[in-house]
């Protein structure tokens, strides 16, 4: 048996069929892999769903047990597994079609103990949700030992389903998930990965992570907060065991901010006090700036202004989450009821979320208009925006390496795309996505000066400066800089004419002063 797919099941009747089907739609013969469905005392009809699939598929094995939680169900599945490699899959998620053969070949080709997979997020509306900036530190596809991999490649997330493990490696070291603990994935990874001698990142997206209300990851309780604090203490222990490494402190930074947000949301005073204590005794004023945009802003506030400022802003963030959840519920009700949804909740949510995005920018002027919930911003710390500039929904701004500088009173039409870097295409013997060692010329700043107007669906690439007062026609792809007061259009964009004569420019700028 080559692979064992382990599916812990509890109250996922509505999603289990989709998950099992994704595990069946694969490019390995069914005789070469098994699907182990662990019914963890589930009170719904999940077992009936599993049995319907088992009747037609001999590689499905159903195991029932008393409810013991996700960790216990995974451990049961591991004990039942007979494959050379095991993959723990959450039963409300799905894996990518025809992915198993490539995963198996990758692990055997490189003699890996662990393979780390790429994934994407999907919300209740079947819309892709962007990954946080710190999901992946570096796209490095070389084989490394576990500690080096945690520090240089992995970000702050250690989901069990993002790893495929060699079963003998887990069994020989006696690795099991800690039972009775929420967020056991991270605690498990803290202990497992430092002992790994051969691990690498897989170049394909193999997993769909479903973000839905009511799932374990999306609900808050004092027990979950206490478990997160326990994991931070484990990180503290591992940091002392492996001094000088950033990975445990980086992970703990994000978890502590999450604990503060959740504790404030439910009024859990013990959690708030514990965060303050751990910050003083462990991380001090040296939190790693990681996680979502709001979390990054909170960490910056703590590093520069202390716990009181971070706590105050976190209260504001909790209010935003309440508005967001209200809007999500209204939207779901409207979709299920066939009704039209007012745009007011969306607009209010954007107004609140924009406060945190602006704070995470390198510079943000006054009266800047942005719609962050429907846009994709990467590298906010490299983004500068001047006064009165308007950035519409559907904007895609990627400035992870080189800066993006936008002047004042700039108007963007719908769906602008600005990217300050590109991939290497000159490396022989490597796929483009595997060519990670960028040259200096692969990233260059984009500057959009004051009073520029771009039409709809404009794309602006690295190294471009658009002079003040210029107009960019809809659909243009701008690859070269243009002088002030140009009117440009086309693919690639070219200067069609000037807005004013030199004399008129002097008069115009004199009147603007």
UniProtKB/TrEMBL annotation:
* InterPro entries (alphabetical): Glyco_trans_2-like (IPR001173), Hexapep (IPR001451), Nucleotide-diphossugar_trans (IPR029044), Trimer_LpxA-like_sf (IPR011004)
Q: Which UniProt keywords apply?
A: Glycosyltransferase, Transferase
**Which Pfam families does the annotation name?**
Glycos_transf_2 (PF00535), Hexapep (PF00132)
Q: Does the UniProt entry include the keyword Coiled coil?
A: no
State which Enzyme Commission number(s) the record gives: 2.4.-.-
Q: Where is the Glycosyltransferase 2-like domain?
A: 4-123
**Keyword Nuclease tagged:** no
Which GO MF terms are attached to this record? glycosyltransferase activity
**Name of the protein described by the UniProt record:** Glycosyltransferase
């Amino acid at each position: 048996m080559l692979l064992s797919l382990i599916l812990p099941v509890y109250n996922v009747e509505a999603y289990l069929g989709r998950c099992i089907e994704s595990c069946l739609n694969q490019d390995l013969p069914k005789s070469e892999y098994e699907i182990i469905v662990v019914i963890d005392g589930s009170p719904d009809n999940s077992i009936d769903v599993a049995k319907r699939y088992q009747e037609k598929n001999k590689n499905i094995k159903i195991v029932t047990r008393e409810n013991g939680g996700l960790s216990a169900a995974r451990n049961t599945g591991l004990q039942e597994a007979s494959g050379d490699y095991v993959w723990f899959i959450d039963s409300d998620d799905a894996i990518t079609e025809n992915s198993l053969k490539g995963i198996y070949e990758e692990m055997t080709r490189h003699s890996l103990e662990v393979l780390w997979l790429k994934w994407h997020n999907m919300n209740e509306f079947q819309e892709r949700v962007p990954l946080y900036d710190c999901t992946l530190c570096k796209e490095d596809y070389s084989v490394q030992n576990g500690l080096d991999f945690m520090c240089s490649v992995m970000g702050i997330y250690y989901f069990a389903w993002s790893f495929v493990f060699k079963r003998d490696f887990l069994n020989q070291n006696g690795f099991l998930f800690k039972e009775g603990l929420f967020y056991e994935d991270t605690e498990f990874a803290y202990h497992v990965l430092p002992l790994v001698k051969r691990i690498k990142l897989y170049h394909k997206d193999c997993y769909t992570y479903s973000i839905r209300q009511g799932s374990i990851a999306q609900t808050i309780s004092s027990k979950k907060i206490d478990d997160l604090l326990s994991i931070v203490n484990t990180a503290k222990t591992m940091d002392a065991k492996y001094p000088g490494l950033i990975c445990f402190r980086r992970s703990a930074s994000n978890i502590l901010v999450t604990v503060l947000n959740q504790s404030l949301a439910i009024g859990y005073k013990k959690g708030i006090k514990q965060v303050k204590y751990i910050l003083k005794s462990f991380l001090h004023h040296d939190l790693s700036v990681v996680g979502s945009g709001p979390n990054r802003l909170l960490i910056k506030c703590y590093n520069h202004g202390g716990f009181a400022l971070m706590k105050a802003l976190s209260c504001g963030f909790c209010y935003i989450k309440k508005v967001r959840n209200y809007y999500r519920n209204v939207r779901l009700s409207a979709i299920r009821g066939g009704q039209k949804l007012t745009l007011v909740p969306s607009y209010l949510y954007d107004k609140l979320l924009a406060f945190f995005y602006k704070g995470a920018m390198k510079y943000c002027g006054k009266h800047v208009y942005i719609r962050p919930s429907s846009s994709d911003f990467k590298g906010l710390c490299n983004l500068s925006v001047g006064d009165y500039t308007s950035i519409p929904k559907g904007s895609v701004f990627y400035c992870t390496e080189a800066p993006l500088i936008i002047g004042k009173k700039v108007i963007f039409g719908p769906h602008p795309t600005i990217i300050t870097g590109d991939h290497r295409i000159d490396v022989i013997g490597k796929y483009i996505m595997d060519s990670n060692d960028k040259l200096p010329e692969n990233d260059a700043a984009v500057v959009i000066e004051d009073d520029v107007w771009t039409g709809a669906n404009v794309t602006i690439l690295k190294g471009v400066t658009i002079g003040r007062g210029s107009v960019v026609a809809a659909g243009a792809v701008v690859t070269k800089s243009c002088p002030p007061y140009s009117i440009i259009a086309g693919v690639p964009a070219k200067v069609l004419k000037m807005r004013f004569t030199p004399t008129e420019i002097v008069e115009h700028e004199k009147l603007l002063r």
